[in-house]
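Entries read chain and fold; for instance:
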Amino acid sequence: MIFYCSTLQVGVKGTLEKRVAAEAAWQVAVRAAESKKAADIRVLDLRGVTSFTDYFIICTGGNPRQVQAIADEVTIRLKKAGELPLSVEGYDQAEWLLADYGDFLVHIFSPKAREFYQLERLWRNAKPVEIPAEA
């Protein structure tokens, strides 16, 4: 089924495929973070809450080197899956690293920054997503 709105063509199937692709990609990011021992990994579903992204992946690295190692592994694995970040901010400081993948954002915090910014509280209207067990 396809709906037409002036010059914009939106396919229902395309929307479903986009959502499935986004979920598969954020799961790759979560597995990458887990492999580098990221702590307190959370996924928030922001669909219906905001229009700039669908999901937040939030995690903590114990020190600046671990924050960077988590970010590096996320980048490597997502690149292998065909996903490249639109932008990455905070890599050098490694307090709050943000990688924007369009459909989802990866936030990697130091413990101090995670407690200070409290994104889960700030975005409390977002639905927490259960992270599926690794297959």
Notes: Helices lie at 12-35, 64-80, 111-117, 119-122. The longest strand covers residues 39-45.
